[in-house]
Amino acid sequence: MTMTEQPSAAMNWSTENCTISRTMEILGDKWTFHVLREVFVGVRRFEDIRSRAGIPRQVLTERLAALIERGLIRRHPYRLPGQRERSEYRLTQAGLDLYPVLVAMIQWADQYLPLDDGPPLIPTHRGDCGGKVSVALQCDGGHEPTPREVSLQPGPGAKPRS
Amino acid sequence: MTMTEQPSAAMNWSTENCTISRTMEILGDKWTFHVLREVFVGVRRFEDIRSRAGIPRQVLTERLAALIERGLIRRHPYRLPGQRERSEYRLTQAGLDLYPVLVAMIQWADQYLPLDDGPPLIPTHRGDCGGKVSVALQCDGGHEPTPREVSLQPGPGAKPRS
């Protein structure tokens, strides 16, 4: 049993501009996350996203607009024979750069929330390689620290608690 | 403009057991995520978590119980001089293994949601190294694919849509 211990240094810092919270404000919305997932697996059209993810039409319209506004997806016009021009939704570079977050989540879930039949979704290196993709922790010093060797330290943007 | 294009193969698969959704059911809850963040930065006591994260007492009690139930944190007893025994909350191995998810989020936010003063939170290799920690995509084939070279493919657990 710990008898006494110093309180965490983090107690001195504000949570107000927390990096993780700011990311979760975007990703943590259930419908937003479902929309992003669809675009990531290549489902790009309004009707397809709506039917596969089971999102109410009005909610989908709002979430797509918000994701475009935040720069994570962009519209790309297409036209089926005999129909009017419509938009598909594609990931921007900022959206694509969420891949490490998704892959890290999939990796964690495959270990700690496994399904009897095996993983439903496998991040894969496209093309000839076809290798399974994972993420690994690495540091500036050239090491590959384990999670226990990592700590979250205040950076220049950390604000003292008032 | 794309004239016609094959619908995504993902349209054939059910979203019902989606790996990403199952992870977001845990992480996507705003308060759960705030609690986890506190434990990650080393804030481990009920009163400290409550005051720093601004979580209502009853909500914190519930979220801590759920995180223990899911195996992400565990109780560790401590006693301050002259007081009754209390519990701190520490990450289990399953909780610690969320580090790649957090680091990936921080890395993305530092690039796409930067703050004027610089990052508030820097994942750091503990001890002598002190290097900044990041995550990188890698594959079984020994490559480091860019996000554009990654795709999410159905695995053995993928279920056809009904």
What is the CATH homology-level superfamily of the largest domain in chain A?
A: Winged helix-like DNA-binding domain superfamily/Winged helix DNA-binding domain
Order of SSEs of chain A: HHHHEEHHEEE
Strand content range of chain A = 15-25%
Count of distinct strands of chain A? 5
Structural class call of chain A reads: alpha+beta
> What sort of overall outline of chain A do the alpha carbons produce when their principal axes are compared?
globular
Count up the helices of chain A. 6
Instruction: Report the top-level CATH class of the largest domain in chain A.
Output: Mainly Alpha
Oligomer: homodimer
Supply the CATH architecture of the largest domain in chain A: Orthogonal Bundle
Comma- or semicolon-separated keywords:
homodimer; 162 residues; alpha+beta; Arc Repressor Mutant, subunit A; 2 domains; 6 helices
Task: Describe the protein.
Two copies of one chain form a homodimer. With 162 residues, the first copy, chain A, is an alpha+beta fold. Chain A folds into two domains: 17-97, Winged helix-like DNA-binding domain superfamily/Winged helix DNA-binding domain (Arc Repressor Mutant, subunit A, Orthogonal Bundle), CATH 1.10.10; 98-151, no CATH class. Chain A is 36% helix and 19% strand. Chain A has six helices and five strands; from the N terminus they run ααααββααβββ. The first copy, chain A, has a two-stranded antiparallel ribbon with strand order 1-2. The radius of gyration of chain A is 20 Å and the shape is globular. The model of chain A has no long low-confidence stretch (mean pLDDT 91). Chains A and B meet through α1, α2, α3, β1 and α6 of A and α1, α2, α3, β1 and α6 of B. β4 of chain A pairs antiparallel with β4 of chain B, so a sheet runs across the interface.
